[in-house]
Design brief:
This protein is of the alpha/beta class. Among the domains are: 108-267, 3-Layer(aba) Sandwich (Rossmann fold); 384-487, ANL, C-terminal domain (GMP Synthetase, Chain A, domain 3), CATH 3.30.300. The protein has 17 helices and 20 strands. It has helices spanning 2-17, 24-29, 36-57, 59-67, 90-94, 132-150, 167-176, 189-199, 211-219, 241-250, 273-284, 286-292, 347-356, 393-402, 404-407, 444-458, 460-466, and strands at 75-76, 79-80, 113-117, 127-131, 155-159, 181-184, 204-209, 229-234, 254-259, 269-270, 301-305, 310-314, 319-324, 336-345, 373-379, 384-386, 389-391, 410-419, 425-433, 475-480. α10 (241-250) links the parallel β8 and β9. The longest helix has 22 residues, at 36-57.
Amino acid sequence: MRHLIIMFYSWLIELYRKPLMFSNITMKLIFIPGINKVREFNSKARAYSEFVKAKRSVPAYKQFIKKLNFSRPSFSGFVPNIHEIPVIDKENYVKKYSLDAKCVGGSVPNENVVIDESSGSSGTATNWVRGLKERKRNAKMIQFGMRSLVGNDPLFIINAFAMGPWATGVNVTMSCVPFSKLKSLGPEKEKIENTIKQFGRNHKYIVMGYPPFLKYLLDNSDIDWHAHDVTFILGGESMSEGMRDYFYQKGVDKVYSSLGASDLELNISAENDFTISLRRLMRSNVKLRDRIIQHTGALPMIFQYNPSDFLVESTDEGELVVTICRPDYISPKVRYNLHDRGHTLAMEELYTILDEFNISACELEKPLTDLPLLLHYGRSDMTVSFFGSNISPTDIQEVIFAIPELSGTVNSYNLSVQEDRDGNKELIVSLEVMEGVKLDFLNHEELRIKFFNQLAEVNQDFREAKKMLPSESVAQICFHDFGSGSFKDNDIRIKAKYIY
């Protein structure tokens, strides 16, 4: 009976939602405050519905569930226990079954389908299929989200994400055309420069791309960014508050990040002025930071998301598990593990924590909604272990932007741990300087000491590990000329590789 009630409820929600799905009224209703209990129930009910439908109509998922001898989750009252459903990921599901088998009905439709692929930065690229209805829904969310951030003025969007088959290039282009002037250039510095010079200062520019490329654009361009109305929207990887400060100093008016994944959806959650103010408050208030974060290292990105569309859970290991609760997806995803570290935080819980520290809500930007927060720490496998500490690329980025001599000099970076035959380990942080920069002006030893002292401030595990180092020389920074050494084969079109 409970199964039938939940299925009927989910069907009823979609029956009434579909005719209104693309209206501005509906979009505003999504963000009404005070209904999070309804959103939470809606999230689990729709996740359950997607599980049942995938089990019935997706051959790969049906086989996956059958192998595990799993029927369906139990109920607590009328709430399905979604956490009982087996977790899927790229290894146990995506790579095990054909693209057709992972689609509803057992085949990729012949019409209105876009096939894109992940960048392949972590190995072989993977193909993903997206149907018309899911693309329309995502496009509407992108439009609504962007308008809430930058207003209703006419926009000139420059898409600097990688073009070709990659998800961000293809889908962002299609999503933004209906509400803006758009030029899709990919990560081409000269073309972006020429476009801004030719179209002049009387436009509200939105430049979207990966953080390293946008920094490269600012550092190597002769455009007076202060004289233009420019907003950066970043995706693909984390950004430190130091990098945001750097962008502001260079003349960028606003800087926002969004969280998406080729595996799931391009726009799962996004920053706004409220979440940015919270993150910056956590940067300055160490006690508040320690109270909220659950993993050591650099500050996590902080986003808001709609639980009615995405059910977000955390495993015991701190990895995010996401269920797409929206219907009409060609290839459904039920409890998909991205292997990203993170957790959620309800706004009510945040305000309780602020009260604990006698922090007034007035110290933050006023939120537009009470949707829950998603704290994202980056990929769980993107760290190196050194004397018991786990060091991530985001930690290194935060250190770079905390040291002025480096933030204006370094173009890219990577880190590695080397081990000799006797088992002695050495931490190597490689820094690629900008094109044309000469290395002889740098005091390497002075910078090395400053660098690892700052890393100890950012990462408390490294702070303890530093006390155990047999010699400070086992932690080194190595400078490389632009495009040399481990940076020789870097491809700026895709996400950078930070573990070498």
